[in-house]
Known about the structure:
There is one protein chain. This protein is α+β, with helices and mostly antiparallel strands. The chain folds into 3 domains: 118 residues, Orthogonal Bundle (Butyryl-Coa Dehydrogenase, subunit A, domain 1); 108 residues, Butyryl-CoA Dehydrogenase, subunit A, domain 2 (Beta Barrel), CATH 2.40.110.10; 125 residues, Up-down Bundle (Butyryl-CoA Dehydrogenase, subunit A, domain 3). It has 11 helices and 8 strands. The strands form 2 sheets. Strands 1-4-5-8 form a 4-stranded mixed sheet. A hairpin with a 2-residue loop joins strand 2 and strand 3. Helix 4 packs across helix 6 and helix 8 packs antiparallel against helix 9. The termini are far apart. It binds flavin-adenine dinucleotide (FAD).
Amino acid sequence: xxxxxxxxTEDARAWLAERLPRRDxxxxxxxxVFHDLPHDEERALIExxxxxxxxxxxxxxxxxxxxPLYEEAFAEVEREFETPGQHxxxxxxxxxxxxxxxxxxxxxxxxxLVRPLLRGDALACQLFSEPSAGSxxxxxxxxxxxxxxxxxxxxxxxxxxxxxxxxxxxxITRTDPEVPKHRGxxxxxxxxxxxxxxxxxxxxxxxxxxxxxxxxxxxxxPDTLRLGDVGGGWAVTLATLGFERGHSGANAxxxxxxxxxxDDARRLGRVNNPEVRRLLAEVWAAEKVAVVSAQRDRESRxxxxxxxxxxxxxxxxxxQRLKLVSEAxxxxxxxxxxxxxxxxxxxxTEHVLGAPGYRIAGGSDEVQxxxxxxxxxxxxxxxxxDRGVAWKDIPK
Length: 396
Ligand SMILES: Cc1cc2nc3c(=O)[nH]c(=O)nc-3n(C[C@H](O)[C@H](O)[C@H](O)COP(=O)(O)OP(=O)(O)OC[C@H]3O[C@@H](n4cnc5c(N)ncnc54)[C@H](O)[C@@H]3O)c2cc1C
């Protein structure tokens, strides 16, 4: 199996080399964690990524039925090359929502969405979080009420990444307020152009609008677009979140890192500063540890073990690495971080202001620590006062 994977990796590298320029460890121009692009440019970026997705898919890479281990190996080799870039929505569509539909969808739903999502022909966002339900996602209140062959949905979602460009949404709703919170949820596949859906982009401190508020006002969804069982929405949610954690940890290349920091430290004559040296060494070590831990993860799965809560460990390590890179950037740049000297250094603000977002997105650091404590280390669980209480009776 390992030999097969190595062979696959070599073939993939050769295929990529025919189509993309090599990076050869060269520093990237952009160190941003989130995009800060005008709407039309952001759409154009998404379209370039979709076109690249199609090329990969048609060649048998990039989601065309490959097992996850091969997918990851491909993604790792792909990082050696200059790709059209990354966008939250294309990653969410291919790495989170496509596998969830594959897992829970009816034959018609799979036909409708799995291939189009993986091939970059369709885009889907994650409509999970609400103003009063983020970490406590199972407490969400967007209500879906059955009406014959349809469901009528009213409520509000927030932080929905890329919703302004998405044709579909994976929507989690409350269908039964009478039972404990995890049991009264149902998932749907929502066409985002349905009447009653109002998408409003939110401006972030890093400049762009990566995510939106989504208001749902008596939106009608046919029962044929229900994903999974009525009352089975939590299992669907957990599957998507599991894919998200695994994916975030693997997404080691987002924003600037050691190569870009070193380049700027040399340019600004800062490489002999002891604090800069210490932080550069820490970033270098953290990047190496990430590679080794991805390798260990892969080997453990090659040996047939389930990834389980290890995804939380990798997500946490990744978010901490982003924070470390920001600290190192501040040490390298000094005042150039807060004042634009016109020499390009100021672009690091896009990293420093963006990195905290990923300590929250996909489950905050604190929540990951709780999962690690309870499920990996077997420590006593946190007290949960609403266990067994009907959702409608939980104080809000
Ligand atoms: C960049 C970005 C993109 C996002 N994209 C999406 C998306 O596409 N779709 C979507 O549905 N959501 C998305 N989110 C929302 C994200 O999942 C939530 O923000 C996150 O789960 C935290 O929820 P919250 O914002 O409600 O914070 P809260 O849950 O209110 O948490 C506030 C603080 O309290 C802490 N806290 C909460 N509960 C506990 C606990 N039990 N123990 C210890 N500490 C705790 C948290 O760690 C945090 O520091 C995105 C968020 C960001 C930042």
